[in-house]
From TrEMBL, chains A, B:
Molecular functions per Gene Ontology: ligase activity
Keywords of the record: Fatty acid metabolism, Ligase, Lipid metabolism
Species this chain originates from: Micromonospora sagamiensis
Origin superkingdom: Bacteria
Protein name as it appears in the record: Fatty-acyl-CoA synthase
Chain ranges of the AMP-binding enzyme C-terminal domain: 445-520
InterPro entries reported for this sequence: AMP-bd_C (IPR025110), AMP-bd_C_sf (IPR045851), AMP-binding_CS (IPR020845), AMP-dep_synth/lig_dom (IPR000873), ANL_N_sf (IPR042099)
Family the entry assigns: Belongs to the ATP-dependent AMP-binding enzyme family.
GO BP: fatty acid metabolic process
Statement: the UniProt record of this protein carries the keyword Ligase: yes
Pfam families: AMP-binding, AMP-binding_C
Domain AMP-dependent synthetase/ligase residue range list: 14-396
């Protein structure tokens, strides 16, 4: 068989030859839209390759991107690694201090930045960061006033360049990208993606056990390109020639719905809170007839949400799981063939409780404290380990070596294997509540609480307790109509199978649950706010 | 990223861990069915690995399989390469002489054989073949009387073995399988698949740009496991945990329909003639509500067939193309997103004339006699070249080196690229008709003829002509109701855009078109029958 290296070009070549007439749409906060075909995208990405050469950057230079979702960011996804360089996606929700740390930790020598994020980059530099950065490329027609090195505007920079670039046979093991973890559990750590891992991951995402993407699809990733490669969607979608829709900047449920409808989106991906917001503004039995399925990840979607979409809108919600360290997609909870026909209630219970089947080539292992595999009985909790060709074997600069052991990555998640062969994340190891020697899963309790009609969002944390060591505290965002009492919540949790000793002793009502830079519930912040 | 070799185990591990409860169904000619779950399949495949060890076969031995589609053949697909050995699928439609040649050319030392095919194997041996074969394993409970070396029955052989086998990290470049070409263009040549090529091909088949297979699917490959790996379906389906249905032995349209219906098949694959037969026995607007799409390959499906399934049954037919040398899947003609909504007639014309978009990581090139890329204008014919990580870079024992050039495989097909980025096979190089210095595509004319209401099947060959060098001869199987006249066919072809000089001077009516061992029109036989 031919020795063809799996590199960025194997995902890019068809864009120009076969998919040149397929659209890429970028929606802006004012709901205006930029649209162009793959042919133009491919030409501009190759102009970017030449432009990076023209700046004199080493061919293995790390190039940061501080940008919203959009067509220029997509050009960088291919243009930076196409020329051999490494794309370091930067989380635009970091503080200037964190951003400076991450940029210098990655070794960035150039940064592509959206115009509205230039001030953030300036602040990071003013704090002593960007020490290796020689070029800042503003993703616009012109440069703003800014105290940044080598400031140049993207459009004039690429405008004069040749629109084709030699297809270089980059080695599979060559670094292609870097992403830092969101650092909910400590200092951000860098994960280095290779050409090989990115191609294999894209094949996994495009597979029917992933997001099932093909040329007939139009995909809207409502997840940031600045973190976890937007779940790999931009690479997978480009590889198969799917129409792509990006929502730049902050967005509203209404903008998401407009895009889903106008662009005839067939597959969308995002965190559960998006789908809760969207559901609030959908009406009628088949409000989005083109949408084949929604992929929901980042947190466990409440069963009420899965039920709403299935029964009211006829749209399946598929639960996905992954981490920065797993590229990120590791599992998707497709119903097996024989489960498709279950009655609604059973199907929904199954979908809500069985969170994942591994994407092909990924292996999972759930282990007890002694490292032995736990029984997959739907009860026993264990530490989740993962292994696969797109799973990290180390962090940048040798950080966190303790998480890699015996060829496996220890995720820091606590999981349960079901008798049906699915697994489910019970908690982050550090979010488990240890009460009287027994464990309580905060994730399970949150899911149950969010199924209550008067609860919009819920996060459960541990607070210290002299007798039981730890006890659960429920932080709840009530609905508009009524605020549930603690007794009502107890009754509700009991009906959902929680034992008396597991029930939270206290509930705190909040306007919103604080979130991390990638939109997850920020339990670190909640613990700081409710120390006892 | 972890250095996990892409080998058979990366497609097999989840069968036991996650998909143990998914069914594998084998239908026999009497319409009885064998069914068992993946868990049992995985245990038995590992017993087979131990059994092959127990016979003392070298760990890189070539093991032939002469078998119909079915669960034991599937066990061999994993059990033979799982233990490091090489599975050589043998075409059961070969003559004893051809079979003997192919077995010895592959270097087979053991052969797995279905009971009803034992006599064929005996004949091949009686002709002096099987010279390296030391073991013949009959896929049954017991052995028949037969003059074959090391005769042993499969069931008792594996029965006592351990049901788990160590996951060996076989290298990616290790041979996994061998398949011989069907030899329509000369002596059969051997193609060697590696562990890497097979895993990547399975990911391509499972992708949304391939057959789009996932855990929710039930797949029925009506293509032989003895040739072209049943289009890679058994590997891809096992990898993603899809329910699998196999039809052993010869089958009828009625048996296919029963399987599609009873087993709730979602994806089926087969040659166009199967779908013509099946269409004849389907009734009602949605006769197969579970069937998401049909993949049709091996020959161009007539537009009338695509229209029938789309308009009458609501089932999309997707055209696929590939060769033994391309593992075999190289392209599938998914409609791009913006083409989905075309009116029926336009859609069908598009689907019938635009035969393919390459599966991810595969590259195509259409070249003129000087090796320059032809213009993709829907008109210009050229030689089709293909390249990719699951495309052969050589034949076994160094045969046919002239087909590999500059990192590409020259397919021997003549193709046309369309302005829309699709390509279409116009003909086999040797089936093109050169009349008066101009080329006539036999494939195009066949497709047009088969669109005539009174034509069931049509094959067009060249016959020598003193003036024009070659002229087309139409071989036609007429419908039951009427036999069309030559004039009527001329009128019909003219309406389909054929020029006067292209029209066949003669038509021969046949009861059936002769077929090759893999079910394609056997033009070699037609040319022998109609030399002038």
């Amino acid at each position: 068989m031919m020795d063809i290296p799996l590199n960025i070009w194997t995902m890019f070549a068809a864009a120009q030859r076969h998919y040149f007439d397929v659209e890429i749409v970028t929606s802006f906060p004012d709901d205006s839209r930029h649209r162009y075909p793959y042919g133009q995208f491919a030409a501009r990405a190759q102009q970017l390759m030449h432009a990076l050469d023209s700046l004199g950057l080493a061919d293995d230079a790390v190039v940061g991107s501080l940008a919203w979702n959009g067509f220029r960011h997509l050009e960088a996804y291919f243009g930076v690694p196409g020329s051999g360089r490494v794309l370091h996606t930067l989380n635009l929700r970091l503080s200037p201090t964190e951003l400076a740390t991450v940029i210098d930790h990655g070794g960035d020598v150039a940064i592509l930045v959206d115009p509205d994020l230039v001030p953030l980059l300036e602040q990071a530099r003013a704090l002593g960061g960007l020490r290796d950065v020689t070029h800042v490329i503003v993703l616009d027609d012109h440069t703003p006033e800014a105290n940044l090195p080598g400031l140049v505007a993207y459009e004039p920079l690429i405008a004069g360049q040749v629109t084709s670039y030699p297809r270089t046979p980059w080695a599979e093991s060559r670094p292609l990208g870097i992403c830092h973890t969101s650092g909910t559990t400590g200092r951000p750590k860098g994960v280095v993606y290779t050409h090989r891992s990115t191609v294999l991951h894209a094949l996994g995402v495009a597979s029917g056990a992933g997001f099932a993407l093909g040329p007939s699809d139009c995909v809207l990733p409502i997840v940031p390109m600045f973190h976890g490669n937007a779940w790999g969607v931009p690479y997978a979608a480009t590889m198969v020639g799917a129409k792509q829709v990006f929502a730049a900047g902050p967005f509203t449920a209404q903008r998401v719905i407009s895009l889903l409808r106008d662009e005839q989106v067939t597959v969308a991906a995002g965190v559960p809170t998006i789908w809760i917001d969207v559901a609030g503004q959908l009406h009628g039995p088949r409000p989005l007839p083109d949408l084949r399925h929604i992929v929901s990840g980042g947190a466990q979607p409440p069963s009420s949400l899965i039920a709403r979409y299935r029964k009211d809108f006829g749209i399946p919600i598929l639960q996905a799981w992954g981490m920065t360290e797993t590229s990120p997609l590791a599992s998707v909870a497709w119903p097996k063939h024989h489960l498709r026909g279950l009655p609604d209630e059973e199907f929904i219970e199954q979908a809500a409780s069985q969170a994942g089947l591994p994407v092909p080539t990924v292996d999972l292992s759930i282990r007890d404290g002694d490292g032995a595999e736990v029984v997959w009985d739907g009860e026993q909790l264990g530490d989740l380990y993962v292994r696969g060709p797109w799973v990290a074997d180390s962090y940048l600069h040798g950080d966190g070596v303790e998480q890699f052991t015996g060829g496996w990555f220890r995720t820091g998640d606590v999981a349960v294997g079901s008798p049906g062969g699915y697994f489910r994340i019970a908690d982050r190891t550090k979010d488990l509540i240890k009460s009287g020697g027994e464990w309580i899963s905060s994730v399970d309790m949150e899911a149950a609480l969010m199924a209550h009609p008067d609860v919009v969002e819920a996060a459960v944390i541990a607070i210290p307790d002299p007798k039981w060591l730890e006890r659960p505290l429920a932080c709840v965002v009530p609905g508009e109509n009524a605020v549930p009492t603690l007794d009502q919540l107890h009754e509700h949790l009991t009906a959902h199978g929680f034992a008396r000793w597991q029930l939270p002793d206290r509930v705190e009502f909040l306007d919103q649950i604080p979130r991390t830079s990638v939109g997850k519930f920020d339990k670190k912040a909640l613990r700081a706010r409710f120390p006892a």
